[in-house]
Amino acid sequence: MKRILLLSAIIFLLDQSSKWFVVEYLDLMMRQAINVFPPYLNLRMAWNEGVNFGLFSGQGSDMLRYILIAVTLTVTVGVLWWGRRFTGWFGTFLIACIVGGALGNTVDRIVYGAVADFLNMSCCGWRNPYSFNVADVSIFVGAIGLVLFSERLQQRA
Questions:
Q1: Which residues, at least 6 apart from 16, have a Cβ–Cβ distance to it below 8 Å?
Q2: Which residue, 26, 20, 118, is CA-closest to 12?
Q3: Of 135, 111, 122, nearest in space to 52 by CA
Q4: Of 5, 13, 44, 23, which Cα lies nearest the Cα of 112?
Q5: Which residues of 23-42 are buried (b: 16+ CB within 10 A; e: fewer)?
Q6: Closest CA to 44 of 138, 105, 129, 124
Q7: Which of 3, 44, 98, 100 has CB 3.0 to 4.6 Å from 8, enough for a Cys bridge?
Q8: Taking the model in full, what pTM does it have?
Q9: Sheet arrangement for strand 33-37
Q10: Could you tell me the CA-to-CA distances from 11 to 31, 35, 38, 84, 103 in Å, in that order?
Q11: Quick one: which of 60, 54, 135, 147 has its CA closest to 102?
């Protein structure tokens, strides 16, 4: 459990420091867009008040915000509880990705009222309209990793 918490804290700090750097230091909140390596990597400011891909956003309700915070914290505790069964580093890493990313996005909801998304990647004539952040990538890696490899992860007997 200590390894999960340590790795979760590292992922959380990576997420929050990247958000601070891009949103505050680079002032993406005012600039709205910065081309880094177009079209492959751009910074595009987006505030996600909903869930994945902005689903349920624009409802204008603080109630939705608090419900999302409560659900995320509840699921995070459940993932932590479930993740105790993994003994190897890979399983620990995957659980920590989910926990650290979820907590990073939860802090955004508490502080800003929405999740700060800023990474935008497009390729080969296709323009991606969505932005995401380090926490989103972390959650995705953890969830996909658990789906694909959970049968092979080292577990307690």
A1: 104, 107
A2: 20
A3: 135
A4: 23
A5: beeeebeeeeebeeeeeeeb
A6: 129
A7: 100
A8: 0.85
A9: 33-37, 41-48, 115-120
A10: 26, 25, 27, 18, 9
A11: 135
Q: Indicate which residues carry an active-site annotation.
A: 117, 136
C-beta of residue 122 within 8 angstroms of C-beta of residue 42 = yes
Q: What is the pLDDT of residues 29-62, one digit of tens each?
A: 889 999 899 888 999 999 987 655 454 455 556 7
Say if residues 96 and 147 touch (Cβ distance below 8 Å). no
> Which residue in this structure is represented by tokens 């008040």?
49
How far apart CA 103 and CA 138 sit, in angstroms, is: 11
pLDDT tens-digit readout, 56-109: 455 556 777 788 889 999 999 999 998 888 888 899 999 999 999 999 999 999
